Amino acid sequence: MNRPPVDRIYLDHAATGWPKPTAVYETMDRFARDIGAAAGRGSYRSATAAGEIVLSCRRRLARLIGAANPRRVALFSNGTTALNAAIFGVVRPGDHVVTTAIEHNSVLRPLEWLRTTAGVTVDVVPCDREGQVDPQAVLDRVTPRTRLVAISHASNVTGAVQDVATIAAALRPTDSLLLCDAAQTLGYLPIDVTRDAIDLLAAPGHKGACGPLGTGLLAVSPKAESLLQPTTFGGTGSISESLRMPTELPTMLEPGNLNVTAIAGWDAALATLAAEDPSERANRSQQMADTLRQLLQPLNDVRVIGGRQLPIVSLTFAAAEVSLIASLLDDEYGIEVRSGLHCAALIHEQLGTAPEGTLRVSGGHGTTPDQLQRCATAIAELLTELAPG
Ligand SMILES: Cc1ncc(COP(=O)(O)O)c(C=O)c1O
Hints:
Elements (H helix, E strand, L loop, with lengths): L8 E2 L11 H14 L9 H21 L7 E4 L2 H12 L5 E5 L4 H14 L2 E5 L9 H6 L5 E7 L11 H8 L5 E5 L18 E5 L11 E5 L1 H4 L34 H15 L3 H19 L5 E5 L5 E6 L4 H12 L1 E2 L1 E3 L6 H5 L6 E5 L6 H18 L3
Parallel strand pairs: 1-11, 3-4, 3-5, 5-6, 6-7
Antiparallel strand pairs: 2-8, 7-8, 9-10, 10-13, 12-13
Helix pairs in contact: 1-8, 2-8, 3-4, 9-12, 10-12
Bound molecules: pyridoxal-5'-phosphate (PLP).
The site of pyridoxal-5'-phosphate has 13 residues, from helix 3.
């Protein structure tokens, strides 16, 4: 294996969080060695233990996001599969969908598929030069034909946090559903699907929620449940005599064996998160964002985009390509950041960063001010080295 440097500085938390809490590694190892059974299938002791772990994870998630009942939380293998289950599960041929330019391709590509194959019309609301979407501009596009409004809680390119609650409140009395992609906020900012009337909340478990790769969730409100259809079909360990999928949550969304090893790790991570005050976590994110901006803004010939509430900033350089700076940061300093479009097809036109994209620096739970300082210093040194003359 091509090993990363021992003293690496990992600043790509918007892609996935690392390292995880120690309990995650220990619990996964213990589960894989000592239990290792499938959940929801057999009734022997290790199968029951696996089932209890899955239920525990669901319960912790329901508490984290304010879902009224753990059965409303379905488990997935990442954010993308959860978003696909939501979009294909509620949008029907000929429907109208409103979305925004900040979305990740895990929202935009399913919608493009439906637009080109199922006569779905899709309105894309622009954002400003920081990735902020005006909630009124979203609501202005909603018509009686609108089945779904799909919006990220925060941009994965600039960290701009969106006013999802205002949109949700306006949609509450209508027939339209709100899908919130909380990929960049779950575990960092408080979310309450019941209070805020979020019909469908999708997120990976492996970013701010501290779970391992291979985890994700979709929370479904009663309003969304009445419309939701399964999009993946197979064995559920229940009503096996029937050729039809079960119709109840969460089973209707979870055919096939769950990744219980990863779910056990996620359950341990959620126990760690539950022991902390959520407002402290939000404050830490805010402080990190402030530190990042304070360190990066004074650099010459650098445009700093975002980083206002979450420690996710995008950078462009007057005199260097973002891909060159990213690879030099890794090669010469062991600093791991990402360059390019960040799987967000539409936002870069709005930010003025197309077609090259940006260098994204993103901190997470364990990021220290010293790591951010070393990253800013390294960027400044590289820009000086690369300056003409
Ligand atoms: C905003 C946003 N949505 C969705 C996803 C997809 O999540 P996953 O990679 O777990 O499928 C990501 C991942 O980077 C993201 O940033």
